[in-house]
Amino acid sequence: MQILKTYRETRSAQYPEPVSLVIVKGLDGIFNAMSAAWFMITSIEPPMLAVSIGFQRHTYELMSQQSEFTLVLPSEKMSAEVEFFGSNSGRDLDKLEALGTPTQPAVEIDGVLLSEASVNYECRITGSLKTGDHMIFAGEIVASHENETPVPRIYTLGPKQFGGAKS
Ligand SMILES: Cc1cc2nc3c(=O)[nH]c(=O)nc-3n(C[C@H](O)[C@H](O)[C@H](O)COP(=O)(O)O)c2cc1C
Known about the structure:
The protein has 167 residues and is mainly beta. It is built from four helices and twelve strands; from the N terminus they run αβββββαβααββββββ.
């Protein structure tokens, strides 16, 4: 039996929810990282993915100016990054510098990778689609990276709760 609810009331039943980090370069040269749960792989050949970015985000402005971004699957040890990058804006501070999150250069794009993440995808934007109050950006994955020591990715387990899928 299904009970009629508002969409917002059903949000908590969607956990655990995978979470990613989107990193894009600003015109000032600073790389900004934002937490994004609303992403998905969309194609295997060519490899592609999509991520939904709210119009109010600094990341939306940057994605509209740039043609490349990194989509990171953070490890289960990166809950501080997921929470901080998802509750502060790059308009106010350099988030990567504030946390001292280790980075390394991307190889195919003008971007950075997060060294301690499970996976990093370098992406070139191929298109966008307005969906309500968010814009979906589609990107072709032009380089894929995995941690040399395989490490489980992190999930959102509830409001402001993060951890591995089995925790
Ligand atoms: C776990 C988590 C997941 C989030 N997922 C998304 C998302 O998919 N899309 C989005 O636009 N914002 C999402 N947010 C909110 C942004 O990360 C947040 O507004 C951030 O401060 C925006 O940073 P910016 O202004 O530097 O772009 C999420 C936040 C958290 C904590």
